[in-house]
Amino acid sequence: MRSDSRATVLIVDDVPENLAVLGALLRPEYRVLAATRGEEALKLVRGPTRPDLILLDVMMPEMDGYSVLACLRGDSATSDIPVLFLTALADPGEEERGLRAGASDYLTKPIKPAVVLARVRTQLEAKRARDGLLDQNAVLEAEVARRMRENDTTQLVAIRALAHLAETRDPETGNHILRTQSYVQHLASRLQFHPRFAATLTDHYIDLLTRSAPLHDIGKVGIPDHILLKPGPLTPSEWAIMQTHAALGSDAIEHAQQDVGDPIEFLSAAQQIARWHHEKWDGSGYPDGLAGDAIPVSARIMAVADVFDALISPRPYKPALPFDEARRIIAEGSGTHFDPDVAAAFLDGFDTFCNIALRYRDPGEATANPAPAVAPRV
């Protein structure tokens, strides 16, 4: 940082006498740099003391003022420095050419001291105003970015808190949220360029799915403990109550949307997943018996992720299945339980899904228990 806070003006003229006159005129108010050639001027501009304004002679040997100005405007580091052209040619055409090339103003020789000082002062004040606006915009942009990060974090924390609330009553505890969220993200990414899904699975939509996935079973908070935690098969009436968790979760999210007033994208995705991730490709699922492409893509992806995790995880009513057995069940469900293309993408990347399961395995959880006699409740 320089100790002299005055603005710095660079004078470029191949006539030493002109430099002396302009320097004497400007030094009482400004710091002055001088150059007699275009190449020298460019070196000074890119040196440690960057000028705030340049007075640039048009007619110079080797490299004229137009060439110097082109170099200045072509470099992002110097493109914003205002340039006042100096010329002895009182030709309107030359003035227009200079202004089109990017000069800020045009002064003719012989100079008039009062005019030079006024033009210099005007250009420096304009530059200070522009710099102030840029600084203000940078501060505003930084504040907007900070608040967006804060809102993003708040949203993620709220989602995770709601999901953990459901976990306090649900046997699917521990890292189930992290596993299913990672399955959904990876599976959606694998499908992103598939012809059937490319229009839907944009990067933005995949982010929405990943955020909303933890809320898929939020409705289980409404299921009585004697059903939710029952260590054995459910009776038909108990199973009917258990199935209501999909609609309960969807309704809760819908009510939250209505309270807010404006639609929120990730909540819309969460509502789809919560309501329809138990639908089946052949129409035999619940709660609405949707079939095929009538089931939202988000729910079709969540269905595979949720069933896989249910198969390989222990529950109060069953031990965990080995990975290979879970793979076989997913494959057998292709075209009946699952969208065939979603199931195929899962099977093609099966090793990755197994690695996710191992990475977020619950402490002390076995991963290769004997196959249970009771199927998972999905």
Q: Mind explaining what this structure looks like?
A:
- Residues 151-362 form the HD-GYP domain.
- Pfam families: HD_5 (PF13487), Response_reg (PF00072).
- This is Response regulator.
- This protein is an alpha/beta fold.
- It folds into 2 domains: 8-139, Rossmann fold (3-Layer(aba) Sandwich), CATH 3.40.50.2300; 168-359, Hypothetical protein af1432 (Orthogonal Bundle), CATH 1.10.3210.10.
- It contains 15 helices and 5 strands.
- The protein has helices spanning 16-26, 38-45, 65-73, 92-101, 113-167, 176-191, 203-212, 225-228, 236-243, 245-260, 265-276, 297-312, 323-332, 340-348, 350-359, and strands at residues 8-12, 31-35, 53-57, 83-87, 105-108.
- It starts with 7 loop residues before the first strand and ends in a 19-residue tail after the last helix.
- The model is unreliable at 366-374 (pLDDT under 50).
